[in-house]
Amino acid sequence: MIVLKDIVKTYHLGQSNAFEALQGVSLEIQAGEMVAIMGTSGAGKSTLLHILACIDRYDSGEYLLDGTSLDDFSEKKLADLRNEKIGIVMQDFALVENFSVMENVSIPLDFSKKKRHNKEKKALATQAVASTGIEDQLYKKVKELSGGQKQRAAIARAIINNPALILADEPTGALDSKTTKEIMHVFGELNKKGKTIVIVTHDTEVAKQCQRIIRIEDGRVL
Ligand code: ADP
Known about the structure:
The chain has 222 residues and is of the alpha/beta class. It has a single domain (2-221), classed as P-loop containing nucleotide triphosphate hydrolases (Rossmann fold, 3-Layer(aba) Sandwich), CATH 3.40.50.300. The protein is 35% helix and 26% strand. It is built from 7 helices and 10 strands. Helix 3 (101-110) crosses helix 4 (118-131) and helix 4 (118-131) packs across helix 5 (147-159). The longest helix has 16 residues, at 177-192. The chain is globular, with a radius of gyration of 17 Å. The mean pLDDT is 96. Bound molecules: adenosine-5'-diphosphate (ADP).
C-alpha cells in the first residue's frame, strides 16, 4: 500500500532556520496492515503522517501509494487522491461543532468526483455512522457529544468514501483509557474488513494493538 524511499522533508528550506524534520525515511506498509508510529515529541511523526496523507510535500525521495508514484502529482490530483483513497482522523476530531453528525460525516461526499443524490448521501452517511456504533446520535449536533462519540463521528467521516487507507494522528490522545479501548476496537474492526491503518501514538497500549510498530527518532526510522 505504501512505499517510502529516502524521504527528506526540510522546513524553511534554504533559510538560516532550515530544519530537516525527516532525514531520509524509507519504509513499507502492506495492504491490510495495522501499524503504529511511535517516537518522542519532535521526532517527525506528524510530518511523516502529513506526507503520507498528501497534506504536505516532501523535498526528495519517492512515495508510492498503491503502486503509483506521487512525486509529480499536482495539488489538484493529490486532493482528489486524498478524497478517494485516504481517510484522516485527528486527535482533536476536527469536526464542525455546530453541524449534526450526519452533516459532518457527509462532507467528504461533497468533495467527491462522484456526484450523488441526497438520498444516496444520507444512506452512505447512515451506514458509515452505524459502523462506528453511534447510529443513535445521527441527528445530534457534535457539540452535544462525548469525546468518544466525537471520535467515532470523525472515523465515520474518514471512511465514508470507502478509502483503502486510514491515517490517524494521536486519535486517542484526548480520550480516557476506557474510551481509548472502544476507539481501538473500532479501528480493529475496520482493519478486519481490510482497511490499512496507520496510527501515530504515544500510548503503548494503543501501539500493542497494532501488528507492527515503526519507531521514529530525529527524523529517521530506527
Ligand atoms: P512529532 O509529531 O514527532 O512530535 P513533528 O513532525 O511535529 O514531530 O515535528 C518534527 C520536527 O519538525 C520538530 O522539531 C518540529 O519543531 C519541526 N516542525 C514541525 N512543523 C514545522 C513547521 N511547520 N515549521 C518548522 N518546523 C517544524
